[in-house]
Amino acid sequence: MNNFWTRTVAGIVFIAVILAGLLIDKWLFAVMILFVTVVMLHEFYSMTMGSRARKSRILAITTGAVLSLLIFVINAGFLPAAYASVAIIPMLCIMVSSLYVKDDDKFRLYSYIYTGLLYIAIPLAVSNYLAFDREGNFNGLMILGFLCIIWGSDVGAYCIGSLFGRKGEKMCPEISPKKSWAGFWGGMAFSAVISVLLTVFGLFDFPWSHALILAVIMHVAGVYGDLFESRWKRICDVKDSGTIIPGHGGLLDRFDSALFAIPSGALYLLLTGLLPR
């Protein structure tokens, strides 16, 4: 019972912080994205590297923070887009520092450094393109809609999977034994309904047909994002990526689906000309 209330309160606080960052002010949004980027990179590097290569890890987290801030100020209209290239400088410093590592095993650790930046920092930076229009006006409703689709996918997968997937065929039993194909289709159905409802109530300003396609793309991407993190946790032999959210684990555990789903959804809207930029 104590664990139930801990999870409930922590979940409410988590959602409240997310809503505040998306709906109140662009600077609060910037702080939220920066915080999430730094914490998730720290969780990933702690999970995969332990306490090794400390200086390179700090430099990599700094790179992710710089990228997050640069993409924010560019989209907010404070700097030209060309300044995004500044984020390359700390990345080059990481590569140069690796040349001074004489031990081959330690040198191989740098593959985790690069993976973390590609896996976490870049997708989170992309969220800025969903939060600003071409004039630099902030509106976090698109990201909120994306999160609703992702949460709907998770809820649908859990509910339908619990009812019909226990004895059914599993998706990837060697990675995530509880994920079933029944849950996969249930999650897709829930996310599709939520996406259409977001269009009906005006949160999405595009036809419901595109909302359905968007939901399918984000659901599939989110499932594989979840499996990707699960594979890392199995390799590293950890249950949770961190402990920052009592009863829920780390931020990476909560945003694993979003790291794949949000860039995939943004790419679809960009290619179809539906992204308001």
Describe the 3D structure:
With 277 residues, the chain is mostly helical. The protein has helices at 2-23, 26-49, 54-75, 88-98, 104-108, 110-131, 141-164, 181-200, 208-236, 251-271. It is globular. Helix 1 crosses helix 2. The protein folds into 2 domains: 26-137, no CATH class; 139-277, no CATH class. The protein is built from 10 helices and no strands. The mean pLDDT is 89.
Produce a short descriptive summary.
With 277 residues, the protein is mostly helical. It has helices spanning 2-23, 26-49, 54-75, 88-98, 104-108, 110-131, 141-164, 181-200, 208-236, 251-271. The mean pLDDT is 89.
Report the total helices.
10
- Unreliable parts: none
Estimated radius of gyration: 19 Å
- Number of individual domains: 2
Alpha-carbon distance between the termini? 48 Å
Order of helices and strands: HHHHHHHHHH
Kindly estimate the percentage of residues that lie in beta strands according to DSSP.
under 5%
Mean pLDDT: 89
Kindly name the structural category: mainly alpha
Query: Strand count, sense and closure of the main sheet?
Result: none
Q: What is the tally of beta strands?
A: 0
Helix content: over 70%
Shape: globular
